[in-house]
């Protein structure tokens, strides 16, 4: 259990501090940005971020825990329907504190605390570190180009034809080779027909 701070907490009792933080969180969710003292902003940040984390998953149990702090139903609805789903992929860090000029009356250090804009984060941020170490890098297979298969008229053999000039040259050399072997190719079909006639 963390050690409580010594002395008055934000200028009052522990019960008063709980009410101060609840009101600051309610105003932050309502307006999206508030200006307060730097000490209150630092205390509000983890308090508000825990409420946003509960609002990311809209369950009855989470709503009951948040309604103990945020009493206004319209702000509670905004938190669970707009702010929570907008931060669904963000792993944390829902608020930002920016220091501004000190207050004129008592020169107290002031700060602006605001809810950051919604941004999509990939699943890589959600995976545990042990799973990253055990995962093997996926091996990409080279792309295989599909080629058309064209039958030549003389031999009846299949020759792959590409769209390049090299394929046209290869087709011409195959055609020249078939011209020289044409007599042998003509004799083979004649023999086959005689066997078919005999049957």
Task: Walk me through what this model shows.
The structure is a single chain. Helix content is 49%, strand content 13%. It starts with 13 loop residues before the first helix and ends with a helix. α1 (14-31) crosses α2 (38-55) and α2 crosses α4 (73-86). It is α+β, with helices and mostly antiparallel strands and 199 residues long. It is built from 7 helices and 5 strands; from the N terminus they run αβαααββαββαα.
**What is Rg?**
38 Å
pLDDT < 50 stretches: none
Largest sheet: 3 strands, antiparallel
Mean pLDDT: 79
* Assembly form of the protein: single chain
Helix content bin: 40-55%
Provide the fold topology.
Elements: H1 14-31, E1 33-37, H2 38-55, H3 60-67, H4 73-86, E2 95-100, E3 110-115, H5 129-134, E4 148-151, E5 158-161, H6 165-180, H7 182-198
Antiparallel strand pairs: 1-3, 2-3, 4-5
Helix pairs in contact: 1-2, 2-4
Q: Could you give a quick summary of the protein structure above?
A:
The chain is α+β, with helices and mostly antiparallel strands.
Task: Describe the structure using short key phrases.
single chain, 199 residues, alpha+beta, 3-stranded antiparallel beta sheet, two-stranded antiparallel sheet, 7 helices, 13% strand
